[in-house]
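Re: that chain you flagged

S.,

Sorry for the slow reply, it's been a week of failed gels. I finally had a moment to sit down with the sequence you sent. For the record, here it is as I used it:
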Amino acid sequence: MYVARSDWKLGIAVWWCEGIFTDAEWEETFRHRRELCAHSPGLSFRPAVLLYVESERASPLRRKQLADLSDHPAYNPYIAFISTDQEVRGVQTAMRWIGQSPHYDKELFETIEPGLTWLEEKRGMPLPALRKMAGDVRRMAARGGAAGASSQSRR
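Prediction finished late last night. Pasting the structure tokens below so you have them in one place:
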């Protein structure tokens, strides 16, 4: 399941990835990353993204697609990567050590609250709209998502 919300005027987004993804959900995640790249150059600050991942491991093809999108020069957010899976966090850490320096700034967390706090520290201000958005998305995900839930954005 993929549930996402964004408000690019505020430069915030929550991307919630849980369970097994369909091809349509993968395409939706790629669309949201392209959206970030489109809006980021017009912002006077870096976007703040809460990325919650409790899903299947991406196939090599999907990992390549994610890497290609993440390598775009306009892909420059602060990303709080949340996962309770220690192995996933370990792989993310190892990739950061051996990979090239990305355009974005990512930190790994086991729970949501420290991730939100880190994003606020990086942006240098409280982000109440992001906190509300994270709560809304979390509740939607707990209910199993809702029809059309994955594609709501405010531009």
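What I noticed first: The radius of gyration is 14 Å.

Talk soon,
D.
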